[in-house]
Design goal:
mainly alpha; globular; 662 residues; 1% strand; two-stranded antiparallel sheet; 23 helices; Cytochrome C Oxidase, Chain A; 3 domains
């Protein structure tokens, strides 16, 4: 059937581009196109590694592990950019998100990716994207010392970009829906709200909260590693470092799925012609997701015998539970939405539907791996690579293609050709599931992952996997060629000159100070006095016995400053001034905790200790950083400001608990 020039969505569906402003469309194109381009390049690196394991091509061990490091970090950036762009573009129809912050997010993440590229390709860094302590500093000459510093700063920039994105989503969504309880759907659960937020807003809130927590944890461990680069005498507790690293890494990769799941709530109804309504099971699902994502990462640490048994138990339960809320509820309600709807089957809508399958199969593989008895067999085998490539490659990546194709189809005013669509879909499915299927089989047989050379007799698996990867690449190339054809047609349409209709957005709630009542203000002032009078003296006395107490003393100074800053920020006259500078507040809540933790590097403060006056000024400076953070948090409003306040305290205490030496 020849492609028509009618609407590419369901007759009762809404086109995305028709309701978007020119700058919003450009942001969507920028994020999605960058993500797809990076995916293509990183995919070629992955193919090169598989061909090396298949003994078809020869890579030196040094270059294999360089490519492995770059492939992992680059794919994270690729899918993260695409997923953030998708959620932002679909959420902005109901929530007025900040365009400038999205531009900063893009530049920060892209800048971080460039630094990672320099560290790997020029500096030779090859410790893996997980940067587990102490490997980045024990290269035995395999990479240049400066490459570790550049790699870590790159990760810090990626984290800063994602932090700004999550903070903007949290601030704007809670302001739009009138507070945290309404934005999370809690008021709807309690039958106190008849107009709950749409599912995309619920998913965005869960991602924003968990993303801020994960980024704060990731920033803590990355800054600690940067501190080690500054002071070679600095040491870290290895179990502490591994917990923080995997909490950050596991959470970010999970949030990539949930970012796109939120976008699917908007994309799918366009083809079904039915709205995806908010229900109480969906609300409960996303509330539990916040808890489960934060605690499921521990299944990566089953093999660490010093990990507390209760922590492994919690991780096992959370890993099982994490599969139920968003995956089961979203997939089930999505299929029900499609059933009997006269679904509009196009290339984009089929990719959207197939993404559900990849998410379900990959998630099932992850749950199987999280079973403690099976994890002893599958841990660090290719089974792990199989399950996360399934939900990323056959889930998130297919959804990325779906959004990309849909925007092009809407721009061109016609759908992709049926024959080309069928060939591309067939190649993507056969190649993709063949590739991950070989990983599952290899992993079940015990073939390890992260090895440049696989055990004798297993090269055949890598060869078969490489062939399937090439089939997937052919499908990807055909899809891109069809997208190029649609883009040429769209260029004639000049969509960018068509003005978007005005949108009716919910009224935004006025910003509130962090301490909204006199009782809260009095409680913070009392807590400051009690802390200084009761807890500070014992910490000071214990400083001589352990460097950890010295770091705890610094964290205590920062905490006192935070409390003072929050109290000042809540004064009506002060709040009236700072509430109009949220961007400055965002900048300072990122910078101040980082400076605070770097200030706790022994090489920074040890030279000051013999001089009483300079040492006192140092402690005053730590408290001043806390005041700055508290004032900056006050500029973010009630919900975001309070969360940043808690996270800042957590970062200081986490650092003090895990970093020693000097």
């Amino acid at each position: 059937m020849e492609a028509g020039t009618v609407s590419v969505v369901h007759p009762r569906g809404t086109e995305l581009l028709a309701t978007a402003r020119v700058d919003e469309r450009r942001i969507a194109w920028l994020f999605v196109c960058t993500g797809i381009a990076l995916f293509g390049v990183m995919g070629l690196m992955g193919l090169a590694m598989r061909l090396n394991q298949a003994e078809v091509v020869t890579l030196s061990d040094s270059w294999f592990y360089r490519l492995m490091t770059l492939h992992g970090a680059g794919m994270l950036v690729a899918v993260l950019l695409a997923a953030m762009g998708a959620l932002w573009f679909t959420l902005r129809a109901t929530v007025p998100l900040h365009l400038g912050r999205m531009v900063f997010t893009y530049l920060s993440i892209l800048g971080g990716a460039v630094l990672v590229l320099i560290a790997v390709l020029i500096g030779g860094f090859a410790a893996g994207w997980t940067f587990l302590w102490p490997l980045p500093f024990d290269s035995f000459g395999a990479w240049r010392p400066w490459s570790t510093d550049v790699f870590l700063v790159g990760l810090l920039l990626v984290g800063a970009g994602f932090f700004v994105f999550c903070l903007d989503v949290l601030m704007q969504t809670t302001a739009t829906y009138g507070g945290l309880q309404r934005a999370l759907g809690i008021s709807y659960l309690r039958n106190r709200d008849d107009s709950p937020p749409p599912p995309v807003a619920l998913a965005a809130m869960a991602v924003a909260i968990e993303g801020l927590i994960a980024t704060a944890v990731g920033t803590t461990i990355v800054v600690a590693l940067i501190g080690r680069a500054i002071d070679s005498g600095l040491e870290m507790d290895a179990l502490w470092a591994k917990n923080l690293t995997y909490m950050f890494g596991h959470s970010i990769f999970n949030l990539v799925i949930y970012l796109f799941a939120g976008a699917v709530y908007v994309l799918l109804p366009g083809y079904a012609g039915r709205p995806w309504k908010t229900t109480k099971p969906i609300v409960v699902a996303w509330l539990f997701t916040i808890v489960f994502v934060a605690t499921a990462y521990g299944h990566h640490l089953y093999m660490d015998f010093v990990q507390p048994a209760w922590a492994s138990g919690v991780a096992s339960i959370a890993s099982f539970g994490a599969a139920l809320p968003p995956a089961v509820v979203t997939i089930f309600t999505g299929v029900v939405l499609i059933w009997g709807s006269r679904y509009r089957w196009t290339l984009a809508s089929t990719l959207l539907y197939l993404g559900f399958m990849g998410w379900a199969i990959g998630g099932t593989g992850a749950v199987i791996d999280s079973l403690i008895p099976l994890n002893f067999k599958f841990h660090n085998t290719l089974w792990v690579a199989g399950h996360f490539h399934t939900y990323l490659l056959m889930g998130v990546v297919l959804w990325t293609f779906a959004l990309f194709v849909r925007m092009l189809e809407e721009s061109a005013g016609r759908t992709a050709r049926d024959g080309v669509s069928a060939f591309s879909l067939g190649a993507l499915l056969v190649g993709g599931y063949g590739l991950v299927g070989v990983w599952y089989v290899s992993g079940a047989l015990g073939v390890p992952r992260r090895w440049a050379i696989h055990p004798e007799g297993s090269a055949g698996y890598s060869l078969v996997a490489s062939i399937f990867a090439i089939v997937f690449a052919v499908g990807f190339l055909v899809l891109l060629l069809e997208c190029l054809r649609l883009a040429r047609i769209a260029s004639v349409q000049r969509w960018e000159r068509i003005p978007a209709p005005r949108r009716s957005l919910p009224a935004r709630a006025a910003p509130e100070p962090l301490l909204s009542t006199g009782y809260q203000f009095a409680a913070v002032c009392a807590a400051t006095v009690v802390f200084v009078g009761s807890y500070a003296p014992p910490i000071t006395d214990a400083v001589e016995s352990s460097i950890r107490y010295h770091h705890l003393q610094h964290a205590a100074m920062y905490l006192v400053g935070l409390l003072v800053g929050v109290a000042f920020a809540s004064l009506p006259a002060v709040f009236a001034r700072i509430r109009s500078h949220p961007n400055l507040g965002i900048t300072l809540v990122i910078a101040a905790p980082v400076v605070m933790m770097l200030g706790m590097v022994p090489a920074v403060y040890e030279s000051l200790e013999p001089n009483w006056g300079l040492h006192l000024l140092y402690h005053i400076g730590m408290a001043a950083l806390g005041v700055v953070t508290g004032l900056a948090a006050g500029a973010l409003g009630l919900v975001a400001g309070r969360l940043v306040f808690v996270l800042s305290i957590g970062m200081a205490l986490m650092y003090a608990a895990g970093v020693t030496g000097g």
